[in-house]
Each structure stands twice: as C-alpha cells, then as structure tokens.
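R.M. (postdoc): so does anyone remember the format we settled on? I'll just put the structure tokens first.
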C-alpha cells in the first residue's frame, strides 16, 4: 500500500480506503464488517470513511464496535464522518452551528472515539451562512474533537468562499473535498477543482470509483438480485447509471482489463489512482474477498502505462476540456 498526503496537509492516507456507505448497518452486519475492515487493515488501509446519515447512524455504531473489538491503535487509523442529514427535527438537518456540534457529538459516541480525523460537510447548505459553518468547524478543531474539516459535493466557488472567509477571520480553512469520481464522472474533479489543487492545496477522498458497481461489470448481463440497484431508494441508479450507453462502454473496457491481467473493478480503481490529485480512493465491500481483490488495484495501477491510459481514454471519449482548449 502507498500513502498520499491529504492535499497540502501533513496527514497521510492510504491510497485505497474503505467506506461504510450503503453496507454497514444495512446490507452488512457487524461480523462481516469486522472481516472486511480487518482484511483492509491487513492490506495497509488506514482510512475508514463514515457519515451520520449512513444507515441512520448504525454504520458508525458498527464501525465503532469493530474498531474496539480489533483493538487498533488510534494512531494507526484515520476515521471520518460527515454532517448534514441527522434526523427529522428542524435542527437535525443542514450545517448550522447547532447541528454540526450535535452531529459531531453523536458520531463520536457511536464510533467510541475521542476525536475524528476528518469531518465533512456532506452537502452545501443554502439555508446556513457559510461563515457560520466555517466558525463551527473551527470551534470543533480548537476543542480537539476534529483534526481537519472539509466538504463533499460542494462547488469550487463555495469551497473557495469558505477558504477565503477562514483566512480573512483567522479560522481553519477546509482541507479536503469528497466528490464522486470515476471513469464516467470526471468534470468536477478534473476541471472544476483544478485551480483548487494549486491555490489552496485541496485534497480529495473520492467516492463511487466504480460508479456504484457498474464499472465492475456486474450489470453487464442484467441487474443481479440483492445488488445495490435493487435496493429501495436507488431507482436513480437503474435510471441514470445502468444505461445502455454506459454498459456498452464497460464492455469495451473488458479487453483492456484482460490484457492487463486484472478484473474490470481493479482497472476502474487503478484508473482513479493514476490521478495525482486523488488523495485516496474510497472502496466499498460486502465481503472480505472483495476487499482483497480491490486492494490488488495498487499493483494494476503500476501496469497502467501511458499507452494503456490512452487506450482507455479512446474508449471513454469523455475527457473534460480545459479552459485553455
């Protein structure tokens, strides 16, 4: 496993990490979560991603129990959570000072930790002034409850606004963003955020590197039962992701994977790793065997030559055009 700096921060995270979205506390029970997390840790993973919204908090409870059972040293792991969707009450949603404080308190309790390494604003909140959110995150840092704060799916303009406010008022600026990034979803990470890597040292902890499983090839012959696309609330996956055009692209990538001696999933993860502005690729798994297979993407990335990358590019045909083009 290789370790990358989180943008300009001194913190180092494993280039492949493990997330709890959809699975922990929902599809996956505690025993299986323990096996998956243990397999990831044994492969060198040190970053484990979570959120208050995942399985209504149950994902954090499961992860906290696993960390305690495995007896990991706190110094050896980087744990995150995210704040936005906390509950049904008027102050349990969004990025107000109150909800940020309460969300952090509840996450720490569920995870059984004294502090979070990373704390993300899970979405932008049009109903809360950005300055209020920035000050609340800075307060948590000074209280020792979080080490770094960042955003998820924020526009570059809003991230820069938060950064400028923090600098103006001598507060801690956002350090990282958690955007969706994969072969089929590239514009924001490769184009919109490009100035932020240079100007503020933004780190990225990318999610959905396999486009919710599409790039693994598992939907090539239809939607298998018990897959994510069959879950209630994931109708969007069938409508917008598992499309005939995307399926055709995935099938064209199969020979590339075969020539590299890897699976489609490993190719998709390795492709993300080739982007130097990606700090870590968050993987998901419901079985330890999946974790072990995903971790081999580190070796595949080393085989992805310039020629192989160009071959992939010609199949995708969706490279974002730079401002200079």
């Amino acid at each position: 496993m290789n370790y990358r700096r989180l943008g300009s921060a001194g913190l180092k995270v494993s280039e492949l990490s493990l997330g709890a979205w959809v699975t922990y506390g929902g599809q996956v029970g505690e025993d299986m979560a323990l096996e998956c997390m243990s397999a990831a840790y044994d492969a060198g993973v040190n970053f484990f991603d979570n959120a208050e919204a995942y399985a209504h908090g149950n994902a954090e409870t499961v992860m906290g129990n696993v960390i305690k059972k495995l007896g990991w040293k706190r110094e050896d792991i980087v744990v995150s959570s995210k704040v936005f969707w906390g509950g049904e009450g008027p102050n349990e949603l969004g990025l107000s000072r109150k909800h940020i404080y309460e969300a952090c308190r509840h996450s720490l309790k569920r995870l059984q930790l004294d502090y979070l390494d990373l704390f993300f604003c899970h979405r932008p909140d049009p109903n809360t002034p950005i300055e209020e959110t920035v000050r609340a995150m800075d307060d948590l840092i000074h209280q020792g409850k979080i080490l770094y704060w960042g955003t998820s799916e924020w526009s570059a303009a809003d991230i820069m606004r938060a950064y400028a406010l923090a600098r103006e008022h001598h507060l801690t600026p956002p350090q990282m963003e958690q955007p969706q990034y994969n072969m089929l979803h590239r514009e924001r990470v490769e184009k919109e955020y490009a100035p932020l890597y240079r100007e503020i040292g933004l780190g990225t902890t990318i999610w959905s590197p396999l486009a919710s499983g599409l790039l693994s090839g598992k939907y090539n012959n239809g939607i298998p039962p018990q897959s994510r696309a069959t879950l209630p609330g994931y109708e969007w996956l069938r409508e917008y992701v598992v499309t005939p055009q995307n399926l055709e692209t995935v099938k064209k990538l199969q020979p590339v994977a075969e020539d590299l001696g890897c699976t489609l999933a490993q190719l998709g993860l390795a492709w993300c790793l080739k982007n130097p502005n990606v700090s870590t690729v968050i993987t998901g798994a419901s079985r330890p065997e999946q974790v072990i297979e995903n971790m081999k993407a580190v070796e595949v990335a080393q085989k992805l030559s310039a020629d192989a990358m160009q071959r992939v590019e010609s199949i995708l045909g969706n490279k974002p055009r730079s401002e200079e083009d």
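R.M.: ...and that's the designed sequence above, right after the tokens. Also worth knowing: The chain has a mean pLDDT of 94. The radius of gyration is 19 Å.
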